[in-house]
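Listing S7. Sequence submitted for prediction.
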Amino acid sequence: MKASSTTVIALVTGIALGALCAHTLQAQPKQIERKQVLKTDLMGLGGKEGLILTATIPVGEHGGKHYHPGHELTYVIEGAGVLMIDGRLPMELKAGDAVYLPPSAIHDAKSTGSVPLKVVAFWIAEKGKPYTVPVP
C-alpha cells in the first residue's frame, strides 16, 4: 500500500506541475515580429539616416511604451489597433491608416483586431542614435 500512496503522490504532483507549467507558457506574451527592410544614409540631410521596418503585433498584445529620437511615419498594412500617445486621446487605427509621430512622442500601440496588427514604419533620425528608447 505504501508504494501505491507514493505513486499517487508522485502522479498528483506531476499533474499539478504540468498544469502550472502549461499555464505559465500560455501566459507568456507573444513576440512582436520586427524586420528591417532598409537602413541608409540620407544624402543632403547632414548626418541623418533613414530606416524602414515592418512590425507585426499579435492580437491582444502591445508594443510597449517607448519613443523615437527621430521622426516616425507609420502605415497600417493589416489589422486594427489603438495608438496611445502621451497627452492625447487614444487613436483607433485600421488597415490603410497612416500616422506621423514627432521626435520624442511617448507612445504605445495595441493590436485590437481579429488578426495581428501589421505596420510598416519609416524613421528619419540622427545617425548613430538609437531608433527606439523604452519608457518604464
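Caption to Listing S7: primary sequence and predicted C-alpha cells for the chain studied. The two ends are 56 Å apart (CA to CA). The first strand starts at residue 33 and ends at 41.
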